[in-house]
Every structure is written in C-alpha cells, then in structure tokens.
Amino acid sequence: MSSQHFPIVSNWYRDSEDRLFEVVALDDDDNLIEIQYFGGDIDELEYDAWYGLQAETVPSPEDWTGSYDDMEADDLGYSDLTAYFNGYTMRLEEIE
Asked: pTM of the full predicted structure?
C-alpha cells in the first residue's frame, strides 16, 4: 500500500490498520486533511501524517449509511418507497 499520492476530497481510502475512511475536506492554509471514518468519527491529519498513513484508494462502500447511526429508510431522502417494475408495483420493504 502506498499513499504517496495527494488526498482527494470524496475519495475513500483504507489504511494499514484496515480502517475505511473518506477525505471530506482539505485545509491548505493549516496543512490539514479532514477525514471521516466509515463508523462516523471525524479526524484531522497533517499532510506529513497522511504520507505516513500508508492508505490505499478503495471504491466507496455500497452501504454509504455506515457513518450514520441508526438510519431508517425514511431518513434516506426517498419520498416514494414503492418500486415499479414493468407495470408491477411493490413496496421496497417486500424486496429481499
């Protein structure tokens, strides 16, 4: 693994301790990188620490709600929880 590349906002990474996180902000004035771990914790790293992190770029997780505690389907921003397939209608809760 190598993090000799520059961190990119919205990219996901996995560090050498197998922690999944997203870069959420870069503060060039203070030389800080703000990250949010998949579980929701937020941390700041100095650029020197970033390059020692040994992080690798990974795809964003399928379950992007990991950093939101106890998120309900109603909280996802979908107003219509009905699925429509070729004229067939069913509630999303019925889909397994």
From this structure: 0.63
